[in-house]
Design a protein that fits this description.
mainly alpha, CBS-domain, Clc chloride channel, 3 domains, three-stranded mixed beta sheet, 27 helices, 14 strands, membrane, nucleotide-binding, transmembrane, ion transport, CBS_dom_sf
Length: 807
């Protein structure tokens, strides 16, 4: 039972106010005495008509305080690294709705307030979309400029990136559209010559120095100001959306530092992306904006509905995929996703995408990141290589998860984790030194993916498009590959090996790091290589059985860019285990709507192969690595154990610590609180009967007693505490009594000792419980907390139960 994080609050003591926007939820460190949230009607007037006695005697002027006739600041709030009570929060919201509906019939002003309350959710979604879209546009523009800064600077305006610098030049040719007099490389500025060995060395050194500077600034800012700004944030957001409390994870400092350091980390050239962290940024926006609306700031369950919609807006601006964002939130991160949240997520994603489109960070008047121009049909037989790419994606996903988790565990358990700044600098130096000589690793990963997705026309200057043109009247026919294509294939093969291994050690470092773009890059490289191979097979061996009948000589049979798209989807699916949302994101990302079937085939194959090797996706694996108390709804619990096998206390353990409904003094309760680490106590009729009355939280007891000492005369250590509905007459000489019935949950969830654990697990998942009491013939036997269930689930699969670190 030693589980300080799992407890239930009273249905009639639900106060969850906040004055600190850094908090995901409130732990009571800051108490607002002006909070007057609704009090549920249970036992509201039970003491009317009954005489109450205290230390002043029958005719005394002082009266006993019946707690929660007025709200007590802090009662019903949550501590850090605890789980919220979903049932209590939803009950509180229903009560608030009921009161608003009743008042709206009384006056026009109350009716307008009711309409305002109903509209506030949509207004909040509008603000989240605007804020997330604006920040995403700022991050995109800044990252593009700083990435180009590693290679040179624009003389006509240092704030222009390479592409924008050459847009206004009249001396740019179509073939060399990235070269113009206004853009100077560092070698041209320092030594005055663009080419030669010395110029190459200067450019090399400047590339590495800028990369080290950016990464050093990123890790230093994270370490000094916002440690929660590192990583992608999606594992923690999944945990928060399941009801866990990580105070400050979605606060204003995390938002500011994550926005700045995300630009720095991406610009440094590390093998990471900004798409995952953008979900974290959007959720920070949602959490901060919740404080503008009382119904969201004071209700943790309602706030999580907003965060689900904010996650959808984050993916919307990350990929230019509003529908994919909604599906991603539903499939991957959300724990509780009612239909109302679906509509609001759709609206938030729409506003965020519109805002980003208005900013136009890519300069191409399109929302999509990697727009594809080709629309060539694909043949049924091409499903074979598409499925092969799915198999590769599944193998890569399983390999990446195992190796990355092993590396992260080593980082946590060895001296490596003590030097995060040094680790980031070493990895950055290795990345920059190896990346610069290869054209396909020197450019940003987004540019690489865009080039791999692109189909070749006659005017393309890329080495991947160096085909021998026998027929100049057509631009899209299959052609023989030129020497530069084979050079590019070797470089891509080396880039593939480099990306696979460097991403393993990069993801999880103390800088903002997303996994979407590196995974897409690995798959896109593999797919493009396979696509070129298939294209050349079709060109030279069009009479083979597999090509006969659908690929005639000189026809446009194979589209290598399509293979890159399919490979990218397969690898991202293998790592994250997404399916529906992945396919929708991919066709929104590229505009390739006619390629849904190949994408679906690759995504499904990838998931099947990866699941055959290991059931967990990368985010679930990191949740388990960090020991967060997350009950995965997708997993089945098939073991035949009973509630009595899991509950505390076990056999030979000390008996369950309980409170009795009467006969306790303030000093007895204070001693019990100080000597135990439990987060709550069952209340019973008597120690002999063990008949259950309710459950009271340790936190609510502490706050109530402290308030009583300040606000009620005569409360001393020897004062009696009652959890009963009526107080028996007291002798005139006795000190004042303290009635705490209303901080007690009168309807705690209970199961019998012979209830199957699979049913108990389902109850915890579907109701979001923190603890459940176990009874036998109405007598209290023990307690099961969420942590007990997670430990039990770890034990039955031969894992270390102590890996569940948080309460």
């Amino acid at each position: 039972m030693d589980n300080p994080g799992y407890r239930r609050g009273s249905f009639n003591s639900m106060q969850s106010g906040t004055s600190d926007e850094d908090m995901v939820e409130i732990a009571g460190a800051t108490l607002d005495s002006s909070m007057t949230d609704d009090v549920l009607p249970l036992d509201r007037d039970v003491s009317r008509g009954h005489s109450t006695f205290n230390g002043e005697g029958l005719n005394g002027s002082s009266k006993m305080m019946d707690f929660l006739e007025e709200p007590i600041p802090g009662v019903g709030t949550y501590e850090d690294f605890n789980t919220i009570d979903w049932v209590r929060e939803k009950s509180k919201d229903r009560d608030r709705h009921r009161e608003i509906a009743n008042k709206s019939k009384e006056s026009t002003w109350a009716l307008l307030q009711s309409v305002s309350d109903a509209f506030s959710g949509w207004l909040l979604m509008l603000l989240i979309g605007l804020m997330a879209g604006s920040l995403a546009g700022l991050i995109d523009i800044s990252a593009h400029w700083m990435t180009d800064l590693k290679e040179g600077v624009c003389l006509s305006g240092f704030w222009f990136n390479h592409e924008h610098c050459c847009w206004t030049s009249n001396e740019t040719t179509f073939i060399e559209r990235d070269k113009c007099p206004q853009w100077r490389s560092w070698a041209e500025l320092i030594v005055g010559q663009p080419d030669g060995a010395f110029a190459y060395i200067v450019n090399y050194l400047m590339y590495v120095i800028w990369a080290l500077l950016f990464s050093f600034l990123a890790v230093s800012l994270v370490r000094s100001f916002a440690p929660y700004a590192c990583g992608s944030g999606i594992p923690e957001i999944k945990t928060i959306l399941s009801g866990f409390i990580i105070r400050g994870y979605l606060g204003k400092w995390t938002l500011v530092i994550k926005t700045i350091t995300l630009v720095l980390a991406v610009s440094s050239g590390l093998s990471l992306g900004k798409e995952g962290p953008l979900v974290h940024v959007a959720c920070c926006c949602g959490n901060i904006l919740c404080h503008l609306f009382t119904k969201y700031s004071k209700n943790e369950a309602k706030r999580r509905e907003v965060l689900s919609a904010a996650a959808a807006a984050g993916v919307s601006v990350a990929f230019g995929a509003p529908i994919g964002g909604v599906l991603f939130s539903l499939e991957e991160v959300s724990y509780y996703f009612p239909l109302k949240t679906l509509w609001r997520s759709f609206f938030a994603a729409l506003v965020a995408a519109f805002t980003l489109r208005s900013i136009n960070p890519f300069g191409n008047s399109r929302l999509v990141l990697f727009y594809v121009e080709f629309h060539a049909p694909w043949h049924l037989l091409e499903l074979i290589p598409f499925i092969m790419l799915g198999i590769f994606g599944g193998l890569w996903g399983a390999f990446f998860i195992r190796t990355n988790i092993a590396w992260c565990r080593r980082r946590k358990t060895t001296k490596l984790g003590r030097y995060p700044v040094l680790e980031v600098l070493v990895v950055t130096a290795i990345t920059a030194i190896i990346a610069f000589p290869n054209d396909y690793t020197r450019i940003s990963t987004s540019e690489l993916i865009s080039e791999l997705f692109n189909d070749c026309g006659l005017l393309d200057s890329s080495k991947l498009c160096d085909y021998i043109n026998d027929n100049t009247t057509k631009t899209t026919d299959d052609r023989a590959a030129g020497p530069n294509v084979y050079t590019a294939m070797w470089q891509l093969a080396l880039a593939l090996i480099f990306k696979i291994f460097i991403t393993i050690i990069t993801f999880g470092m103390k800088v903002p790091s997303g996994l979407f773009i590196p995974s897409l890059a690995v798959g896109a490289i593999a797919g493009r290589l396979l696509g070129i191979g298939m294209e050349q097979l079709a060109y030279y061996h069009h009479d083979w059985v597999i090509f006969k009948g659908w690929c005639s000589p000189g026809a446009d049979c194979i589209t290598p860019g399509l293979y890159a798209m399919v490979g990218a989807a397969a690898c991202l699916g293998g790592v994250t285990r997404m399916t529906v949302s992945l396919v929708v994101i991919m066709f929104e990302l590229t505009g390739g709507l006619e390629y849904i079937v190949p994408l679906m085939a690759a995504a499904m194959t990838s998931k099947w192969v990866a699941d055959a090797i290991g059931r967990e996706g990368i985010y679930d694996a990191h949740i388990r690595l960090n020991g967060y108390p997350f009950l995965e709804a997708k997993e089945e619990f098939t073991h035949k154990t009973l509630a009595m096998d899991v509950m505390r206390p076990r056999r030979n353990d000390p008996p369950l610590t309980v409170l009795t409904q009467d006969g306790l003094k303030v000093e007895d309760v204070e001693t019990l609180i100080n000597e135990t680490t439990y987060s709550g106590f069952p209340v019973v009729v008597s120690r002999e009967s063990q008949r259950l009355v309710g459950f009271v939280l340790k936190r609510d007891l502490v706050i109530s007693i402290e308030n009583a000492r300040k606000r009620q005369d005569g409360i001393v250590s020897s004062s009696d505490i009652y959890f009963t509905e009526h107080i028996p007459p007291q002798p005139p000489s006795s000190p004042a009594t303290l009635k705490l019935r209303k901080v007690m949950d009168l309807s705690p969830f209970t199961v019998t000792d012979h209830t199957a654990m699979e049913i108990v697990v389902d109850i915890f998942r579907k109701l979001g419980l923190r603890q459940c009491l176990v009874t036998h013939n109405g007598r209290l036997l023990g307690i099961i907390t969420k942590k007990d269930i997670l430990k039990h689930m770890a034990q039955v699969v031969n894992q270390d139960p102590d890996s569940i670190l948080f309460n």
